[in-house]
Design a protein that fits this description.
9-stranded antiparallel β-sheet, 8 helices, 33% strand
Length: 212
């Protein structure tokens, strides 16, 4: 059965994934190439999502947000291996200056939300932004093919009818974003994967997220 938001209800057990997170998936590159493309300085490895979160918050406290941490791990998906980049309270994976070049020659899918109700979903193909939208407002889309994902969006649980959306107190936008990312990549993210993975850890100066 095709994956939907219901299959990602478990993200509510990971507070950072519902409050402030960013996840990016890139096909067919190495972890080293991913960190290089994100302009990250490698800082060794961390094992498990909890440790990734702890180290992230420690860096935020020590550097007042001047250094942005990201973890990366190789995962299986459609057409081979992908790299999953994961951030707590980060936004590198939806920064066009970083992800557009990284998507050249391949597919890149990323999604983000923060505690201030800012969110984004991006689908790139070979350097072209095909579809982008805010999961909280899925009826407003941009990109070269803004409507290509409409069918998939509805299948995974996004509500595109404004009248119907008003009836939902808390639409499953984060869960639906994870499910849509899986539909586009074949990467099935599970609690077991997050808690047992060994992540390559890197830090990016926040100045790298600004347009020159």
């Amino acid at each position: 059965m095709a994956v939907s938001a219901d299959d990602y209800a478990w993200v509510n057990d990971f507070s950072a994934l519902t409050e402030a997170y960013c996840a990016v998936l890139v096909r067919g590159i190495t972890v080293e190439d991913f960190l290089r493309g994100m302009r990250a300085e490698p800082q060794g490895t961390v094992t498990g999502y909890a440790e990734l979160e702890r180290r992230t918050w420690r860096l935020w406290e020590e550097h007042s947000g001047d250094l942005l941490p990201i973890g990366a791990v190789t995962v299986p998906g459609d057409q081979g291996e992908w790299v999953l980049g994961l951030e707590t309270n980060g936004y590198l994976g939806v920064t066009p200056r970083l992800v557009e070049p990284l998507s050249r020659g391949t597919r890149l899918v990323s999604h983000f939300c923060d505690e201030n109700a800012h969110d984004n979903f991006l689908w790139y193909e070979d350097g072209t932004l095909r579809t982008s939208f805010e999961p909280l407002f899925p009826d407003e889309r941009d990109g070269s093919t803004p409507d290509e994902l409409v069918g998939l969006m509805e299948e995974v649980g996004f509500v595109l009818d404004e009248n119907e959306e008003e009836l939902l107190e808390d639409p499953p936008t984060v869960e639906a974003a994870f499910a849509l990312a899986e539909r586009l990549t074949g990467v099935h993210i599970t609690p077991d994967l997050l808690t047992k993975a060994t992540y390559a850890f890197g830090v990016v100066p926040h100045t790298e997220t600004r347009d020159p």
